[in-house]
Write a structure and sequence with these properties.
The structure holds two protein chains of two kinds.
Chain A lengths: L8 E8 L10 H16 L8 E3 L7 H9 L5 E3 L7 H15 L5 E7 L1 H5 L13 E3 L3 H4 L5 H16 L3 H15 L13 H6 L2 E3 L2 E2 L9 E9 H4 L7 E10 L16 H12 L8 E4 L4 H10 L8 H5 L17 H5 L6 H12 L13 E8 L4 E8 L4
Helix pairs in contact in A: 7-11
Chain B lengths: L11 E3 L5 H8 L4 E5 L5 E2 L14 E5 L3 E10 L13 E8 L6 E6 L12 E10 L2 E8 L8
Antiparallel strand pairs in B: 2-3, 2-4, 5-6, 5-8, 6-7, 8-9
Classes of the chains: A alpha/beta, B mainly beta.
């Protein structure tokens, strides 16, 4: 195709919507609020947008949001890989602008899950009446829940590596400590390891406080080229590397190992594309649907050896000043989790690299990783972001 | 066990082209796993193509119905109201004996949740859901070793 070459993708603007409780807003309105703010952050307007990406839980979702936003894009994408979707959408957007197909891709996320469903834990699962056809039935007959699947991975990790409930709890404690400094966070009251392991079991060995909150909220980012960003007021953040992977759909019996996630595949690829190693990463934003999700992801991305994740997260290992400052906004465990949290990881990574991290700013952060996890540990997507051009 | 273990509101199995043979075997209380006749690799859930060698040829390989608990959870919060009375219940991943590593998700029944361990020996406990429909749940394998 006759397209310009030699372009370099950057994120020029980011924003979160209001969160975590938005009973007065529709899902589309959350997209709109985040889009307005991200474009303003970038110093751009809707007239500059020629590409659009978002995803939700029904077909032609992006088309519907584009109509609401008044966009007529010549590039759109609604790839859905669950919780990792927004890392995938931004990777695709980077390819789109680097190929020269478009100049400005707006990526938005919006959800009013909390207001729609009432406040409860995200135990979600298969149930209710009717017939479940084909392979899906092998997951639907047992009364298993979303938490239950992650719990079975946690149990397996404990069996293979001696990981303890207290080590998993340390993840929740650190996220809460970060959330305590985030005025928007859904849960801000500090907690202890003992609080986590003495909270009620939802699906053994995961307790209530091992599980993410359920929120309303959204976010947006603007992907463009280094050249276009040079004329804009803000500091552009480079998309240095990206990759995604999948190992199975929803049935854990088809997951090759319950303690190795797709991050083990896509993480090294993304790091190689960025020309970095895990040791170069200053701050991480890792999908934290459950505490075990973080432990598995740390190991699979190579921040520690397989099986050592429990020790890695102990004693504030994930806090600012610790081994790897992680989820500096408080994460899905405490700040906000509207269902597919991946956009929040990207926004917070960019803020950290711009020095806008507030009380949890990692001093001098130059390289950040955002990693989303979707389904039943089914998909993973890694973005490596940096302050400086590669 | 022939009594319905979960309430009637739970989904009923519906077969498709790939899974009908599996459900026919289950109706006869035979636990089978799909095996590629080209390379011998087993797979579960059933699917149209061998993920290892891409052959579409397969057979239903009958297992003894025993296995070990690969991992488990005790569900203590229901996601649908009709399951609330059943709490707590045990969901397991079973590694099936003689299956070359094939696993199946199921329930462990006739057990106290506190007694379940990874590595526990289990055996199939068929639940008849209708005249031509049975579902394999599992129970602790009290007779393990005495079976053919």
């Amino acid at each position: 195709m006759n397209l310009p070459r030699g372009r370099r993708a950057v994120i020029a603007g980011v924003a979160t919507s209001d969160y975590p409780h938005l009973p007065h807003l529709s899902e589309h309105a959350v997209h709109g609020q985040a889009a307005d703010r991200a474009l303003a952050d970038a110093g751009l307007t809707f007239a500059d947008v020629d590409g659009f990406a978002t995803t939700g839980f029904f077909p032609m979702y992006a088309t519907g949001v584009a109509e609401y936003l008044g966009l007529h894009p010549i590039y759109f994408d609604e790839t859905n890989s669950g919780g990792s979707s927004f890392e995938v959408l931004v990777e695709h957007a980077a390819y789109a602008v680097e190929s020269g197909a478009v100049d400005v891709v707006l990526v938005t996320y919006g959800s009013v899950q909390l207001s729609q469903m009432g406040r409860r834990l995200g135990t979600g699962g298969t149930g209710g009446g009717g017939l479940a056809p084909g392979p899906a039935i092998y997951d639907a007959l047992w009364g298993n829940t979303l938490v239950g699947n992650y719990a079975m991975a946690a149990r397996r990790h404990m069996h293979e590596f001696g990981t303890t409930p207290e080590q998993l709890a340390a993840v929740a404690v650190s996220m809460r400590n970060h959330a305590a400094t985030n005025p928007q966070a859904q849960e801000r009251e500090p907690i202890t390891v003992d609080d986590v392991v003495s909270s009620r079991l939802v699906a053994d060995p995961l307790h209530k406080l091992d599980c993410c909150v359920i929120s309303d909220g959204g976010g947006a980012c603007v992907v463009t080229t280094e050249e276009r960003a040079a004329d804009l007021p803000g500091e552009p953040i480079y998309i240095l590397g990206a990759a995604h992977a999948t190992t199975h759909h929803l049935n854990l019996s088809a997951m090759p190992s319950l303690t190795i996630t797709p991050a083990a595949q896509c993480g090294p690829v993304a790091f190689a594309r960025a020309g970095i190693t895990p040791a170069d990463v200053d701050v991480a934003q890792l999908y934290d649907s459950f505490t075990i999700t973080v432990v598995l992801t740390l190991e699979d991305l190579g921040f520690c050896a397989k099986g050592d994740g429990g020790a890695f997260v102990e004693d504030g290992g994930l806090e600012v000043g610790g081994r790897l400052p992680t989820n500096t906004d408080g994460g899905g465990l405490s700040a906000c989790h509207p269902g597919m949290r991946g956009m929040f990881l990207i926004v917070e990574a960019v803020r950290q690299l711009r020095g806008q991290g507030g009380a949890t700013q990692v001093p001098g952060a130059r390289i950040a990783v955002a990693h989303g996890t979707g389904g039943m540990l089914s998909t993973g997507a890694t973005l490596v972001l940096g302050r400086e051009a590669p | 066990m022939t009594e319905r273990w979960f309430p009637d509101e739970m989904p009923m199995p519906a077969a498709n082209a790939e899974t009908v043979g599996w459900w026919e075997a289950a109706a006869g209380h035979r636990l089978v796993v799909q095996r590629c006749t080209a390379c011998g690799t087993t797979r579960h859930p059933p699917g149209p193509v061998c993920p290892r060698c891409r052959s579409t040829a397969s057979e239903w390989f009958e297992l003894a119905g025993t296995g070990t608990v690969f991992t488990f959870t005790v569900v203590r919060q229901a996601f649908v109201a009709s399951l609330a009375d059943k709490l707590p219940y045990v969901v397991i991943v079973v590694e099936l004996d003689g299956s070359q590593g094939a696993r199946i998700v199921s329930n462990l029944v006739e057990v106290e949740p506190e007694e379940v361990t990874v590595g526990m020996a289990v055996e199939v406990a068929w639940e008849d859901m209708g005249p031509e429909l049975a579902v394999p749940r599992f129970r602790p394998a009290v007779h393990r070793g005495e079976r053919p």
